[in-house]
Design goal:
It is a single chain. The chain has four helices and eleven strands. It is α/β, with parallel strands linked by helices. It has one domain: 3-Layer(aba) Sandwich (Dihydrofolate Reductase, subunit A). A hairpin with a 2-residue loop joins β10 and β11.
């Protein structure tokens, strides 16, 4: 699995169940990366999407123990059920929110991080991969202007995964 997220200077990802920034180039990057793929999200991320509808032209999976009403997505209520559904799939992207990122990051081998050169005043955060010894920055773009902000696209790779997809304890 892969994770894809935009973070501010403090690795913040959202505030009051909304994105921190309006970033057209990052949104295009997100679309290009996930189109035709499987995306996994929590209930709040689904509800934060336009009209609370799943993303078009993707297989949407919502991980929520309590469930959520709607159509156009598969609902899974446990980590084990999710892992069974995505088993053997190559292109699965974790798209949020914070608790889903935290739960599933140990199962990911790649993190596509858009870094924003600003403090967005976040109330939820992504783990700072620059401080994790099990992740390595593999590539990063130059800083580019995206609307009112400077961003850079970064790819992190996990250094080691055990056969079950879980990090060693």
């Amino acid at each position: 699995m892969k994770t894809i997220v935009a973070v501010d200077k403090n690795w913040g990802i959202g505030c009051e169940n909304d994105l921190l920034f309006n970033l057209p180039l990052d949104m295009q990057h997100f679309r290009d990366s996930t189109l035709g793929k499987t995306v996994v999200m929590g209930k709040n991320t689904l509800l934060s999407l336009p009209n609370s509808k799943p993303l078009k032209n993707r297989q949407n999976i919502v991980l929520s123990a309590k469930g959520v009403d709607g159509e156009g997505f598969a609902l899974v209520r446990s980590l084990d059920d999710l892992l069974e559904i995505v088993k053997g799939k190559d292109d699965v992207y974790i798209i949020g929110g914070a608790s889903v990122y935290e739960l599933l990051l140990p199962y990911c081998d790649e993190a596509m991080i858009t870094k924003v050169d600003a403090d967005g005043g976040a109330d939820c955060f992504f783990p700072n991969l620059d401080e994790h010894t099990d992740w390595k920055l593999e590539s990063e773009s130059e800083w580019i202007n995206d609307g009112d902000y400077r961003i850079r696209f970064c790819v992190y790779k996990r250094l080691m995964i055990n056969p079950q997809g879980r990090m060693p304890v």
